[in-house]
Prior knowledge:
Elements: H1 14-17, E1 21-22, H2 29-36, H3 39-44, H4 50-63, H5 68-90, H6 96-103, H7 106-139, H8 143-150, H9 154-159, H10 165-190, H11 194-200, H12 205-208, H13 213-224, H14 227-236, E2 240-241, H15 246-282, H16 293-303, H17 306-321, H18 323-339, H19 345-367, H20 372-398, H21 401-404, H22 411-436
Parallel strand pairs: 1-2
Helix pairs in contact: 4-13, 4-15, 4-20, 5-13, 5-14, 5-15, 5-20, 6-18, 7-8, 7-17, 7-18, 7-19, 7-20, 8-19, 10-15, 10-17, 13-20, 13-22, 14-18, 14-20, 16-17, 18-19, 20-22
Amino acid sequence: MFRLPRTATAPFCPSEVKGSVTVDPSQPFHRKLLKFAGPGLLVSVGYMDPGNWATDIEAGSRFGYGLLFVVLLASLAAMLLQTLCVRLGLAGGLDLARACRQRYGPRTNRFLWLGAELAIVACDLAEVLGSALALHLLLGVSIPVGIAITAFDTLLVLGLQGAGFRRVEAIVLGLVLTIAGCFAVELAMAQPNWFGVAMGFVPSLERLQQPGALYLAIGIVGATVMPHNLYLHSSIVQTRLVARTPAATREAVRLGTMDAVLSLTLALFVNAAILILAASAFHGGGRAPVTEIEDAYRLIEPVVGGLAATLFGIALLASGQSSTFTGTIAGQIIMEGFLDLKIPCWQRRLITRALAIVPAFVGVWWFGDGGVGKMLVLSQVVLSFQLPFAIWPLVRFTSDKRLMGEFASGPWMKGAAWGLFAVIGAANVWLVWTVATGQG
Length: 440
């Protein structure tokens, strides 16, 4: 008789999969790199989720290629932060949540834990809305029915209980390649102005001063640099079993960094492709800005072609389903790290999804189907506000020579990380000010 699992099991429980992927030091470098490939992919799916779609589509339709530099800078910031996560996990031997529990007092830890949980729920809200919208566009079901269907992704978690971590990585690889392949075809069909694209990657403060540009820019940052990904990455890199010698650790950090940078470069391509597609199809020509993913789906067909609309919907569905795995793992990492608590993975997934489904239903009831885009952008702004509370301890720990030894951040890396913390914090304060004074 079928019984639900009563314990936290692989591949979603961090302590169960730690050191489960053996890396043979005698293998050639490219073989070892393939063994290390995977954690970066799991992190990258959070950088191309439906929240990114909402911010990128609105940015492209409203400002053309003008905010591409924000996507680029946010992706470079993500690479820096995820590199620090690799160092903390492989050289420090701790994930970010566990390091916080060891270093800070109970009140600080509870505050950080609640913030991390809020970030996971905000991210999962975007996945719920994105998946529901994809089902609506592809199958014709209503948005509320699509939201209800997303609750059943808990069955995927149940089906993978006890599986190896590499199987999850293989599934995520398939989802990522599906998303990237769809957008590669769509870009070829859209025929963007590549000179305009190149100029859009050039940073400009003047473009951020346009009405609504800052709000969208912060949304792009929040959608790109996910707070819970910092907890996730610092844990799942520890699935690789390497010798505990300085030379082996040095090579492991290098391989883990390459995995992260390559995976996030792919995520950069997807995010830039969404914005470029929106700018090519919807900006200028007297068209009103497109703020809803559903509108983008319907408008892209007459502009680019019917195949592009179908690919758009398929990529959206793949994007929405990606967090089924990463959200569950991140939730377990945060609970185990901050609270020293383990619960069955299906329960963790059900709790997270329930906390996301309720506001999704309320939002659709309050705003109607047309409010999906607004809720997606808002969820990403919430993530941006949570980000400094994850960056602060990450930079502190990875700069600590007592914890990191020779792998502690050098002056330039430390300076870049603190500079990023200051910029994100200042942008959030500026956003609050502009909204409060009615200037945004």
